[in-house]
């Protein structure tokens, strides 16, 4: 069963990586699936992207958001305001085209990061999509986000 889930994760992640890489004009990277439990995705210094196979069980908009976030690291290797602005531009472009993720009506980057659950660790604001594509929200100002399914 695990191999089936891993294979399905690869089938769902690979086209999203190619699509986001093309939109950001970066070369499609090497993609690896890992057996992580607390980190959804990562971008190594050499540009290799790694994703938890467990993302296959997440809603399509969450998967797309995590992939968009990691692909954006291919051009901005940090969580600076430039990084968030780039991710915000990608989000707005997707919404303007009216192409939601996985038929949910949500735009890409509609924010798996908003909850910060299971995303990266370490830097201030890491794992969150700041409102308006601006700088990350300081930890002291963050409000808990209720876990909810796909919005209607």
CATH fourth-tier homologous superfamily: Metalloproteases ("zincins"), catalytic domain
Radius of gyration, Cα only, in angstroms? 14 Å
Give the rounded overall mean pLDDT. Answer: 72
Low-pLDDT residue intervals, each spanning 5 or more residues: 99-152
Estimate the global geometry from the Cα principal axes: globular
Spatial ordering of strands, largest sheet: 1-3-2
> Tally of extended strands?
3
The CATH topology name reads Zincin-like
- The SSE string, one letter per element, is HEEEHH
* Count of structural domains: 1
Question: In which range does the helix fraction lie?
Answer: 25-40%
Terminal CA distance reads 31 Å
Q: What class would the helix/strand composition place it in?
A: mainly alpha
The description of the largest β-sheet is: 3 strands, mixed
Question: Beta-sheet strand percentage?
Answer: 5-15%
Which SSEs are present, and which pair or pack?
Layout: H1 2-23, E1 31-34, E2 41-43, E3 49-52, H2 60-72, H3 81-97
Parallel strand pairs: 1-3
Antiparallel strand pairs: 2-3
Helix pairs in contact: 1-2
Quick structural summary:
34% of the residues lie in helices and 7% in strands. It has 152 residues and is mostly helical. Helix 1 packs across helix 2.
How would you describe this structure to a colleague?
By secondary structure, this protein is mainly alpha-helical. The protein has a single domain, classed as Zincin-like, CATH 3.30.2010.10. Helix content is 34%, strand content 7%. Strand 2 and strand 3 form a beta hairpin. The protein is globular and about 40 Å long. The protein starts with a helix and ends in a 55-residue tail after the last helix. The C terminus is likely disordered.
